[in-house]
Amino acid sequence: MPADQNPPRTSVCGLPLPLPPTFDFAGHRKRPADTPAPDDRELLEKNRRNVRTEIHNADSVSTTRDYEEAVANAESVAALDVGAKLKAYYAYTEEEKRLLVGSKEVVEATGPLPVFMTSWVAAQRLVVATEEATERRKRDADRVKAPRSIRGTLQMGTPHAVAPTSEATISIPDIWWRSLFYKIYFPLHWWTDEVIQQYHDRPHSIPKCDITLENGTKVQVVDFPRAEEMLGDEDTTFERLTPGLWRQASSNLLAAYDICCTPAAEGESELEINYNTVFRQHAHFARLKCIEDLKMFPVWYPVENELRNEVYNGGGFSLATWENRWMIALAAWKQANTPTPFTPSRSASPFNSSSSSGVQNRNGKRTSPDDGNTAAAKCRERSSTPTSGDGQSFRKPPSCVTCCGPHSAYDHPTTITAFQDGQPIFSIVINRDIRTAHAFRGNAPKSLCLNFNLGRRCNGEHGDERLHTCSLCGGDHGALSRDPACLRVRDGALVP
């Protein structure tokens, strides 16, 4: 053969090179089925042979792909050939598979495994782990259901919100709020839990009647005249109402107003000002001003009753009007209870020995208001002797340490926010605590020591919580000391 001629080449698949265009590359890359290993082959030998086979097959497939891609791209294939014929793997028995999945020690002792077998083992272990986790959760759930010792298991999860009162909310009967809707106004004590629960327990005990509307429809409401004979008229002798029961009844009445004023369906508009809005403002005002002072209940309840009827008749809430009505009643009571040089001193409490109403306790039993051992008597004793923030008792000051007015700081009208010369007041009283009206020496209002401002001895127990600062101008002197440096002192007198 001449030296300048290349001998013809034959492919590893037996065909002359270059391969014909009809060559089946995909069929050449197809691996034959796994074959059983000889009986004398151990797992270690089987793994080693399969690793070698896997490397051989990978090299063959890579070589074949190179030839196939060159043909597809019309490139020269003079130096190329397809890969050698693929070899079959030794098949693994089911027992060997269980060993490889269940024991890492077997894998380490007989490995390394071929890549395809490593992937298969990892997938099977993931399935097993998922099944075990599901079974474990099921066992835990069954164990919780089974009887077990409760010792050490009492734990609080997410605490629920505590209601502002200890009593559970009672449901308002339909006939109650329906009567309110048609402007049949009950005495306030009819709205207490006791009376409402009486209706729930014995619905037929409350007399009812039908009223005919303009369209001819009949509606059932409470028969007021007959019910009044059974339940009583508006309580003016305080036989059926105490401040606590007033709070309860007002809350139930407000709930009934909410039912009447809430739109029945979505899309219906609700008035911005409604009966429930006005009554909520009225009830809040009464609670804020009067309810905590037990001895003042007979004074403010007639005022509250009168103003409540104004709301019934469509009157709008006005803070100035409500304040004025209350201040008139308070001034009249103070005048009637101020002793003169010609009359003996009378008790400052509106309750007297001729009243047998007393106060109703939690069990519904009434106690005499003059019984010093009752909770009501103790409340009256505390309310008649004011205390400062640090617990020290004192008499009511002769002049308001907030505005220099002729009243105590506790009776300071909330409508007065400035002195007579137009200067804003420096301090206010909130919940029997005197504090600066605005931020002072920092970003927030500060509480002030009342004993210091009254010119009385302070034991200093309040520490830094209360400042020894003038409640009239913010100076370093007491409000009633009439210090010449005070901005509200002129010629030794306080200037309102």
Tell me what the structure shows.
The protein has 496 residues and is mainly α. Among the domains are: 174-263 and 271-336, no CATH class; 385-496, no CATH class. It has 14 helices and ten strands. The protein has helices at residues 25-28, 43-72, 94-102, 104-110, 115-145, 174-181, 193-201, 224-231, 243-261, 275-291, 297-312, 319-336, 375-384, 450-453; strands at 208-212, 218-222, 359-360, 366-367, 427-430, 433-436, 447-448, 466-467, 489-490, 493-494. The strands form five sheets. Strands 1-2 form a two-stranded antiparallel ribbon. Strands 3-4 form a two-stranded antiparallel sheet. A hairpin with a 2-residue loop joins strand 9 (489-490) and strand 10. Helix 3 (94-102) packs across helix 5 (115-145), helix 9 packs antiparallel against helix 10 and helix 10 packs antiparallel against helix 11. The radius of gyration is 47 Å and the shape is elongated.
What is the overall shape?
A: elongated
Low-pLDDT parts are 1-6, 163-167, 267-272, 341-349, 351-397
Taking the sheet with the most strands, its summary is: 2 strands, antiparallel
* Structural class designation: mainly alpha
Quick rundown:
The chain is mainly α and 496 residues long. It contains 14 helices and 10 strands. Helices cover 38% and strands 6% of the residues.
Structural features:
496 residues, mainly alpha, two-stranded antiparallel sheet, 14 helices, 38% helix, 6% strand, elongated, disordered N terminus
